[in-house]
Amino acid sequence: MSRTIAVAGTATMFTERSVEADGFDIRYYQAGVGEPLIVLHGAGGSRLTPALGLLARDFRVVAVELPGWGAEPNDRSQTLGDLAETVATAADALGHQRYHVLGASLGGAVALHLALLYPERVISLVLEAPAQFRTGARPVSEIPAAEIVRAFRHHPERPPAWQAPDPQVQARSWPVVDRVLVRTPPYDEKVAEQLRRCHVRTLVLFGTQDGVIPPENGRIYRRLMQNCSLQYVYDAAHAIQEDRAEAFADITGDFLRRGMHYLIPDEDTMINP
Amino acid sequence: MKIEIFTPVSYYGPVDTHSWPTPPRCYDAGLGMDSMRKGLEQCAAAYDAGFDSLNFAEHHYSTAQLSPDPITYAGILGQQLPGATISVLGTDLPLHNPVRVAESYSMLDNVLGGRLGCIGLLRGTPNEYLTYGTNPWQSREAFGEAVELVIRAMTEPEPFGWEGRYFRYRNISIWPHPVQQPHPRILLSGNSAASARLAAELRCDIGFSFMAFERCAESVAVYRAAAAEAGWEPGPDNILYRQFVYVAETDERAEEHVAHYGWPGFAGLMAAGNPEMGSVMATIGAAMAGLPQGIPVDPAKMPLLSAAPPIVGSPQTVLTQIKALRDVVGAGRIELIVIGGEQRFPHEMIVSSLKLMGDTVVPALHADTFVLS
After folding, report:
1. Residue A269 belongs to a domain
2. B13 CB contacts (<8 Å, ≥6 apart)?
3. Size of interface A-B (CB pairs under 8 A)
4. Which of A25, A241, B359, B371 is spaced 20 to 30 A from B231 at the CA atom?
């Protein structure tokens, strides 16, 4: 039985469904038509943002809920690679052979591993403040309460309104985050070595006001990866989609449509004939 | 205390109009080239007098300053005076591509061998918004973003892009990079509380132009408080004050020269040729101050400009007034404009005054004494 969810500020309606994959019941939210765009959330859980609503105009957005963030705990996934395998299996089950992948924060790290495991399946990779490399980052648990909102949202007044994660979901998901990410080194040499050989077309986005992962970590991906573009999104904190929805959708959509040709401005500059 | 000179490189030649923009038909290339030579000689005189920095600034379409591209002068002067510190205070940033600005200053820093003293990133005077057609209502927001982009372009070690509100560049990787690390000093205006806060957040110096000392002190307080929030403490060296200054042997002689030449007489940059153009300038000024687009400018509601008078007199008189500046504002750097507007003082008088300062005011300031023996 599916339900539909409206996205604030857009005409987009996401449909909630589930698929069996890798021994899990994976919930996902889908909207739009076109090339599939698998969206992987951060440690705070799924967010159906206006930015995703805008992307759904041109892509089939499939926002996957990682196992452990739903109704059931996840004691099996031990690594980011494990989660990536689950996502790949879910994509297969949905009939998607090749797809774009967008991952935010923890989801960005999972997306990266998906691209490393199955580069032939990933058309383009977009990493929103990815958590794989976290040099200089404070653990979220150590950010003072007075600073936590600003660390994630430079503009918490913009829709969607800032919401702290559901404590019950967090109780189930946090052990997963701890295992697959928090206990790993902020700079993983093995992953760095793998990235040197990764040719997947990749866009890395960091907000200039990111208070969770210093945006300078974006340089690491640019330096290591063969086909990577790093973009700083001005005046956005860790949750770029929420802080600057139009800018995020604009640059991400352009990259997904045109790949690295997005470096060529194609807007009409003639004022009058 | 440091003393710097701002040389506008004025045009020493006749024109038949004093409104802005000055028609190019008035320009005589022979006089123009001679004017540039004189401007650079004035800089050399200041250098010989011991001035700590020789400064230029950007202005357009005017006899008052033959300096639409001050970086060119800075590069030339740097070759002529291999020991001089040279600054540009500053670039009218809203008129330009911030990446190009970063490239130009990085190149200058290399050409000067790391002697680029300070980069001023400013919003410009109202007339400048008519130079290339720049939206004044968005200038404050766009300026803040542009400053961050200039700094980012000078400091990023990897190619990157910028998705801003007002600027989009998807492929930035400037070469050369600056000599000075992380980048040469940057100065922003302190003339408003908002700009003082921005300077503090970005760890930049602040500069004041002609403003009453007490008003400057208010902005400095905002600057210091914002800097503390940002985790650093500015000192006097981070605060610069610009003013018209003329020194002669005695107070009487100084006043006599000022009266005779109508010094400083600096209206040229915004002198409107007719009332409607005056309204245009007022609209731009109001927009820069934050009046929303579409709201008519009411002169009765415009904030009063709180300007300090020029500093004029004997070396001791000038030192006493500079001490007041230091005590009230907390500035550790004073930047002098000696020439006035539109070649008010003859070249020889400027050189003579600079030499006198070199014998009196400059050594006293360097020794942090304000009483001549």
Report:
1. no
2. B26, B27, B28, B31, B32, B35, B63
3. 49
4. A241
Query: How do A13-21 and A3-6 pair as beta strands?
Result: antiparallel
Any domain includes A21 = yes
Residues of B with CB under 8 A from a CB of A: 145, 148-149, 152, 156-165, 167, 170-171
Nearest to B162 among A234, A250, A262 (CB): A234
**Which of B148, B150, B154, B160 should we substitute to test contact with A (largest number of A Cβ atoms within 10 Å)?**
B160
pLDDT of B343 over the 60 cut:
no
The percent of residues in chain B predicted with pLDDT above 90, rounded, is 85
Cβ atoms of B244 and B266 closer than 8 Å: yes
- Residues 6+ away with beta carbon under 8 Å from B74: B56, B86, B87, B88, B108, B112, B116
Closest-CA residue to B66 (of B8, B23, B123): B8
pLDDT in tens, B88-110: 999 999 999 999 999 999 999 99
Given an 8 Å threshold on Cβ–Cβ distance, is A219 in contact with B171? no
Highest mean pLDDT among A120-124, B62-66, B298-302: A120-124
User: Which residues face A64 on adjacent strands?
Assistant: A28, A40
Mean pLDDT across B164-181: 98
Domain count of the fold of chain A = 1
Q: What is the DSSP letter of B352?
A: H
Distance CA A10, CA A148 (A): 28
Tell whether ipTM is more than 0.90: yes
Of the residues B149, B154, B158, the best mutation for testing chain A's interface (the one with the most A CB atoms within 10 Å of its CB) is: B158
A208 inside 8 A of chain B by CB: yes
Distances from the Cα of B312 to the Cα of A157, B45, B112, B240, B255, angstroms: 53, 19, 33, 19, 7
**A234 vs B158, B159, B164: nearest CB:** B164
What is the extent of the structural domain holding A35? 3-261
Across residues B62-78, what is the average pLDDT?
A: 95
Q: Which domains does chain B have, with CATH numbers?
A: 2-268+306-366 (3.20.20.30)
Chain B hits for A205, Cβ within 8 Å: 163
User: What is the pTM assigned to this prediction?
Assistant: 0.95
Rg (CA), chain A: 18
> What are the structure tokens assigned to B316, written together?
């001791």
CATH number at residue A98: 3.40.50.1820
pLDDT of A55 higher than 90: yes
- The closest CB to that of A219, out of B145, B157, B163, belongs to B157
Q: Under an 8 A CB cutoff, do A222 and B160 touch? A: yes
